[in-house]
């Protein structure tokens, strides 16, 4: 197939590598000319341009730009593509995108691969990023089965696992398991850095071990991504943060009152509950 990819960064570049290796013709579009040239030189795409016109022959187009550019890009793309072109995106939030884009293009199907690394840009692109990762898809009542099948076949071919969901449910779930952890992890790092006793802070910096490495990872990632999560998933994220605040207050109260049996009960519950999340069973 002829597949277009807009936004040749971590996600778009990684997808291009896998799909090209499966024999598809990959046409790329990115913001910078140098990125397009690098993508061609490294064999990540067959051809690339900063001009959306290059995608006029694409049968399926993945929009892999930052979230705020997804809807405006689709608006600019429409004059160049035929009515049976399938458009999809990889944005980390779905409702604000699907609400706007569904009215612009009938063959738009929202998507979100649950895969990534702490790096960004074309240099961060790598093969097999999506293997065994969930890929959320949010078809609507208007989505035609024939187009849905084409898209799901492509996604399955990069060995991702398809999960169908509603945009709003998706946004609430990612607020809990992705966006809330970023804010908690960022608050953890900020708490450590705000330590007044410099001797303690310096010692903490030296002796920090695997526990700190695990829990600070997402809060120490790309600030742009965290900002987008908060801006575009604000309500669901706030709801999760308020729920977390309640949990934090409860644990403070348990420790203040030295209610060790209750703390043990709670830690036992979370020790067992963690295994209910698929990723924690791997
Ligand atoms: P990224 O590495 O920064 O890649 C995005 C690339 O898009 C940039 O490198 C930039 O390339 C290009 N770009 C920016 N604005 C553009 C525009 N208006 N038109 C065309 N190209 C443009 O970011 P990413 O991590 O791949 O994220 C991309 C999307 O994937 C986001 O919507 C994000 O929500 C979603 N996502 C990210 C992750 C993750 O963990 N990172 C996971 C799942 C989904 P040049 O400036 O070099 O041309």
Structure in words:
This protein is an alpha/beta fold and 282 residues long. The protein starts with a strand and ends in a 9-residue tail after the last helix. Helix 6 crosses helix 10 (234-256). It has an eight-stranded mixed beta sheet, with helices on both faces. The longest helix has 27 residues, at 167-193. It contains eleven helices and eight strands. The mean pLDDT is 96. Strand 7, helix 5 and strand 8 (161-164) form a beta-alpha-beta unit. NADP nicotinamide-adenine-dinucleotide phosphate binds at residues 6-12, 29-32, 35, 64-67, 69, 73, 90-92, 112-113, 116, 120-122, 124, 225.
Strand order, main sheet: write it out. 3-2-1-4-5-6-7-8
Instruction: Count every helix, treating DSSP H or I runs of 4 or more residues as helices.
Output: 11
The helix/strand class is alpha/beta
Radius of gyration, taken over Cα atoms and rounded to an integer in Å: 21 Å
Number of strands: 8
Order of helices and strands: EHEHEEHEHEEHEHHHHHH
Which geometry do the CA atoms define? elongated
